[in-house]
Write a structure and sequence with these properties.
The complex is a heterodimer of chains A (601) and B (615). Helix content of chain A is 62%, strand content 10%. Chain A has 22 helices and ten strands. Chain B has two domains: 320 residues, Up-down Bundle (ABC transporter transmembrane region fold); 183 residues, Rossmann fold, CATH 3.40.50. In chain B, helix 2 runs parallel beside helix 8, helix 4 crosses helix 7 and helix 23 crosses helix 24. Classes of the chains: A alpha/beta (601), B alpha/beta (615).
């Protein structure tokens, strides 16, 4: 499990583009019409050279006076062509924006969903910022590239094509000269681009590290203040900022070298066209007007080439971002939801069995070893054991946050891996220790537990009713009545306006509202005061009557109240039985209980 | 730092400030850009000159001119080389300015993150603050990328005007009719673009917030199976952003072709006017060619104004957001007082401390008029129901927030007057939620840079880890003290993380140790040993304020303070409170009574005993 997400990616530029298009087919929808329109748009670029050529050949070089009327008519036609090509160009732009943004929105959502399906999110709690950036700034980079560069790339390529055709009709010899001048560009651009690409990869890495350093100053704000380590954090941030700055400057130097060699070629081609053109003209191969038109065309040719080179450089940046998004999507999901081939697990009191279950975190020792356990339907089971004994892992296995390395976890006799995800989540709900809350009110957060079919979202009033009812059932009415705005009290970012204990109360109400057949409580009341904890435990006891609960317990009061106690020690189940029997027997539990009583009374 | 005045004024100030921040860089930027601008015009002049002196005579049969083909070639090649060099210079300098300005902004913003108080942090989502330091900085400085180029274009236009006017006023007029139109189109564009871009940028931040929150809620999402719902929520925001981006795109879609066509139309006009002037014998053909060529050369540079103007709205928005952070006040003003070097436990006194938070209905008091003395070396347990204000009190003692009224004294000195070093050197807080830095175990404990002479030695670190009962865990990690923690580091359980955080506090040998339910995920027996290992009551044990629920922890305390709804109800030993404070008794005996109730119920069910009437 937890196959790490690649950072650099092995995909080349073209492989990335191909994979990217496959993931967002919207990008290439209607591409042919767009291409046709873009070709018309590119015609606008050759109007001026052709008019100049006509003006010189019929006016200046001729024997008579310049034919002003003829030039005026040509200029008027040229104006018409320019307006038409402008319209086409606008149309192309609009079409491209629509399709690219559609494709990117799709990609963004796909990556977002995939991250949720990955176990890394629940295993590795630190710095989720790295994953967030994959679905935000990396996609934004691509989007900005499309807006400010991608379209120009298409237009430039077409302009190059159209200019070439027109040049060839004027003078094939000079067209060859122009193309030859750009051979070095073509030859050198690949290695140069590779360099630029490497530099941009470095920039992105440095930006990532910098954001990591900055996020520590934000997420760890309390610790930093409590320990007075702001100067050190500042030093680390400053170093990261400066590393980013240096990387950017170094990348820019290469971009400048690449771009200015483009300028050199673009203007050098002018020299070649004039020199060769004069010689050709001397031989009578070309008229003065044609030569001057070639000068204009060579310039118009160079512009797009320059533009294309520059955009290709920026493309590196965008592709790097794209690659990072694709890497997320291509990371295999460790805990695969079998839906729609999965079995629907019928509702009713849940019976869970662990059969020869072993589990280890990647690269770590076995956390659980050959665990065999029956959790009878409709019973309250408590798991106790020392810190690090594997209690929490057991909860994760039963909720299928992870899959066992060996053995199987069965729900009513069916392997969890065969049950479709939605059905499983309906039946089994975990209340984690850290009760995370969404920004919003207490009522919003409790209502998050409501189950409903897609498209049948309950109305605000219905949701409110359900929330009030569930809080009353759990005896929380007095608690929220004492808050500044009752159920509408905002909980703040991550619920931080509430204390850890209050967050747990909301989390329990939320989970209870979900009405699962098996409720797994992982020390879900660890931060609540004893009186409240006992009250909630009693309420849950009554409310979950006939349903199954599995409680990972620190406090042995929970174990006392359970029908069955499971004692875990060093990854193995050492004792199973009702509280009264275990207390009476010699063993770990008796010792634990003795210590607990000594601590609490 | 916030900008005021009209949009034009704000834009100019923004650019001005950036250039003033990097005077040397922008001196060279302006110089190289100006040189580039003049050279570009010179290219057109050269083309005109070559047309008149080489191309036309040579192709009309002038043998001398035919022999000069290489002169024309060399001249143009020389200009090409110089131009390329000036472009390289301009770009490198522009890149330097852009990168330096970003670094400046980031430094300013992050300094604020570290300076501003917790109250400010709690009001600002992490996602937003990260985007302030990243995408908003990029937006605010984006305009400096095309800026040197645009400056070069200004020079280019002046030089072009000078050259053309020396040739013919009518051609000049024809060539320069497009300039005001270009400026007008840019102005219209900017007005349309600005709100669209602001909107898109806002949505980008919102998308980031949703992603941040949703990923942080991963465990909840997974356990309730609400990934579909989260996907919908995210997709809705992403779609809003898509529409906003398309709206931005559509404005650009129409603007680009217009700005592209303008120089071409100008060229056509120049050709027509030029032919008329040529027919009148007022100009040479080469001069017409040069003028028309100049306009085609302008086709790309003229867009630079568009790039600058296009970036400006974005830059203003980004700059404003950064300003909001940089200008944010309300920081806790740090004092300068130091404490005498005497080690040993310190005395903490709270006098009439009232702490308030703002709510829509006015300030809400979390703590009312608290008077409390923690004598040196004593361990005081703070006990109270969930939400009674224990964490607020602990934060106030450590000065994570300041009281609205009253004062907190450390050895008689108001903590607000203490220097940060003096304060954090004497007091450490282990909070409810532990934060682990992406760093090695050693540095997570010492919070010092490697090689820092003031950092605790490895022996001290091991000692602290032993005291926190986490040394065995660390020994089991690959690399021991050098094992990385955090995202790419080892997986530690909640309890292990809490113990690392405790070691972090202990290694400082604090004079006051505040533990805010810092052992909630630690096994009770382990917790008891940790508390016992703080030291003997012989002056080596710090003053301890313990926010706790467990009676085991409470029993370790010399004294218990019972807090209820932000007020101290009673204080005394556990036994005293148990006897005289019914609220405390309820908290303290909750489990006991629960056990009794259960036993009773079991007995009732078994029908062994008559139900007790009351108790």
């Amino acid at each position: 499990m937890s196959a790490s997400i690649r950072d650099d990616g092995g995909l080349g530029v073209f492989a990335t583009l191909r994979r990217g298009v496959a993931l967002s087919p919207q990008l290439v929808q209607g591409a042919w019409l767009t291409l046709t329109l873009a070709t018309v748009a590119a015609l606008g670029k050759v109007v001026v050279p052709l008019v100049v050529q006509q003006a010189i050949d019929t006016g200046v070089s001729g024997t008579g006076d310049p034919d002003v009327n003829r030039v005026a008519v040509l200029a008027a036609i040229g104006t018409g062509v320019l307006v038409l090509s402008g319209l086409c160009s606008a149309l192309v732009n609009v079409r491209l924006f629509r399709s690219s943004e559609g494709g990117l929105a799709h990609l963004r959502v796909k990556a977002f969903r995939h991250v949720h399906d990955l176990a890394v999110l629940t295993q590795n709690t630190e710095r989720r910022g790295a994953l967030v950036s994959r679905v935000t700034s990396d996609v934004d980079t691509i989007s900005l590239f499309v807006q400010w560069g991608g379209i120009m790339l298409l237009v430039s390529v077409l302009q190059i094509a159209v200019s070439t055709v027109v040049m060839a009709t004027l003078s094939w010899q000079l067209t060859i000269v122009v193309w030859l001048c750009f051979v070095p560009v073509a030859l050198l651009s690949r290695p140069a681009q590779k360099r630029v690409s490497e530099r941009y990869t470095v920039v992105r890495e440095k930006v990532g590290a910098m954001l990591g350093a900055i996020s520590e100053s934000v997420v760890g704000a309390e610790t930093i203040r409590a320990y007075g380590v702001a100067p050190r954090t500042q030093r680390r941030i400053d170093a990261a900022i400066d590393a980013t700055r240096r990387a950017m400057v170094r990348a820019q130097v290469w971009v400048a070298v690449a771009f200015s060699s483009g300028v050199l070629v673009a203007n050098g081609v002018l020299a070649a066209v004039v020199a060769v053109g004069v010689v050709l003209g001397t031989w009578g191969e070309i008229t003065a007007g044609q030569l001057v038109a070639m000068i204009f065309l060579a310039q118009m040719f160079a512009g797009p080439v320059q533009m294309a080179t520059e955009i290709l450089n920026e493309l590196q940046n965008a592709v790097a971002g794209w690659r990072r998004v694709i890497d997320v999507i291509d990371t295999p999901v460790e805990v695969v939801d079998p839906a729609p081939d999965g079995v629907d697990s019928p509702r009713g009191a849940a019976h869970v069995a662990l059969r020869d279950v072993s589990f280890a975190y990647p690269g770590g020792p076995l956390v659980l070893r050959d665990v065999n356990l029956e959790l009878p339907a409709g019973k309250r089971v408590a798991v106790v054991g020392a810190t690090g004994s594997g209690k929490t892992t057991m909860a994760k296995l039963v909720c299928r946050l992870v899959d066992p390395a060996q053995g199987a976890v069965l729900l009513d006799g069916v392997d969890l891996r065969e049950i479709n995800g939605e059905s499983l989540r309906r039946r089994v709900v975990l209340v984690p220790q850290e009760g995370f809350l969404f920004e919003g009110s207490i009522a919003d957060n409790v209502a998050y537990g409501l189950r409903y079919a897609p498209g049948e979202e309950p109305s605000a009033d219905e949701a409110r009713e359900a929330v009030v009812a569930v809080c009353a059932e759990l005896g929380l009415t007095d608690w929220y009545a004492g808050l500044p705005r009752g159920l509408d009290t905002p909980v703040g970012q991550r619920g931080e306006s509430l204390s850890a204990g209050e967050r747990q109360l909301v989390a329990i109400a939320r989970a209870h509202l979900a009405g699962a057949d098996l409720l797994v409580l992982d020390e879900a009341t660890s931060a609540v005061d004893p009186a409240t904890e006992v009250r909630i435990a009693q309420a849950l006891e009554q409310l979950t009557h006939g349903r199954s609960t599995l409680t990972i317990a620190h406090r042995l009061s929970t174990a006392e109240a359970a029908d069955l106690v499971v004692v875990v020690d060093a990854g193995e189940v050492v004792q199973v039985g009702p509280h009264r029997e275990l207390v009476a027997a010699e063993g770990i539990y008796a010792r634990l209980y003795e210590a607990w009583v000594a601590q609490t009374r | 730092m916030a900008l005021t005045g009209s949009k034009v004024r704000r834009s100019l100030v923004l650019i001005g400030r950036g250039m003033r921040d990097e005077p040397v860089v922008y001196f060279w930027a302006v110089l190289s850009s100006g040189f580039f601008g003049a050279l570009t015009v010179f290219v057109a002049r050269a083309v005109g000159w070559v047309t008149d002196t080489v191309v036309l005579p040579a192709l009309s049969g002038d043998v001398a001119a035919q022999g000069r083909w290489w002169v024309a070639g060399l001249l143009l090649l020389g200009i090409a080389v110089t131009l390329a060099l000036s472009v390289a210079g301009r770009r490198i300098v522009a890149g330097l300015g852009y990168a330096n300005l970003q670094a400046h902004h980031r430094t300013r913003v992050t300094r604020q993150y570290l300076r501003l108080p917790m109250a400010w942090h709690r009001q600002h989502p992490a996602g937003q603050l990260l985007s302030n330091a990243n995408s908003d900085v990029e937006a605010a400085t984006g305009v400096f990328n095309p800026l040197p180029f645009a400056l070069g274009v200004v020079v280019m236009l002046f030089v072009a005007f000078g050259t053309l006017i020396s040739v013919d006023p009518w051609i000049t007029l024809a060539a320069f009719t497009i300039i005001p139109i270009v400026i007008a189109v840019n102005a219209i564009f900017q007005r349309r673009m600005s709100p669209a871009i602001t909107h898109a940028q806002q949505l980008r931040a919102e998308v980031s917030d949703v992603a941040h929150e949703s990923f942080e809620a991963a465990l909840v999402v997974k356990s309730l199976g609400t990934a579909d719902r989260e996907e919908e929520r995210f997709a809705a925001k992403a779609d809003e952003l898509r529409r906003a981006n398309v709206r931005v795109g559509v404005v650009r879609a129409y603007f680009d072709p217009v700005i592209d066509a303008l120089p071409n139309l100008g060229s056509l006009l120049v050709v027509v006017v030029g032919m008329i002037r040529l027919a009148a014998g007022e100009v040479e053909p080469g001069e017409v060619v040069a003028a028309a060529y100049l306009l085609t050369l302008l086709a790309v540079p003229v867009r630079a104004f568009g790039w600058v103007l296009g970036e400006l709205p974005r830059a203003l928005v980004g700059y404003e957001r950064i300003s909001r952070v940089v200008d944010a006040g309300g920081s806790l003003v740090e004092g300068t007082a130091t404490l005498p070097a005497a080690a040993g436990p310190a005395r903490v006194e709270l006098r009439g401390v009232t702490v308030e938070v703002p709510t829509p209905r006015g300030p809400l008091a979390l703590l009312h008029d608290i008077d409390l003395v923690l004598e040196p070396g004593r361990t005081v347990a703070l006990v109270g129901a969930t939400g009674s204000g224990k964490t607020t009190l602990a934060s106030t003692v450590c000065r994570l927030l300041d009281p609205a009224r009253g004062e907190v004294l450390l050895d008689g000195v108001d903590v607000r007057e203490l220097s940060p070093d003096a304060r954090t050197g004497a007091m450490t807080l282990v909070s409810q939620s532990t934060f682990v830095f992406e760093d090695t175990v050693r540095e997570n404990v010492t919070l010092a840079d490697p090689g820092d002479p003031a950092a605790p030695s490895d022996d001290d670190v091991w000692e602290a880890l032993e005291a926190a009962h986490v040394a065995d865990v660390v020994r089991g990690l690959e690399g021991g003290l050098d094992a990385p923690l955090g995202e790419r580091g080892a997986n530690l359980s909640g309890g292990q993380r809490q113990r690392i955080a405790i070691a972090r506090a202990l290694v400082r040998r604090p004079r006051v140790l505040v533990m805010d339910d810092a052992t909630s995920a630690v096994d009770p027996r382990v917790e008891r040993r940790i508390l016992a290992s703080l030291g003997e009551d012989d002056g080596s044990r710090p003053t301890v304020l313990l926010v706790a629920y467990r009676m085991s922890s409470v029993l370790l305390a010399d004294e218990v303070v019972h807090l209820e709804a932000g007020r101290i109800v009673d204080r005394g030993t556990h036994a005293e409170l148990l006897a005289r404070d019914p609220g405390y008794a309820e908290l303290a005996t909750a489990y006991e009574r629960d056990t009794e109730r259960r036993a009773r119920e079991a007995a009732e069910q078994a029908g062994d005993v008559e139900p007790e009437v009351t108790r």
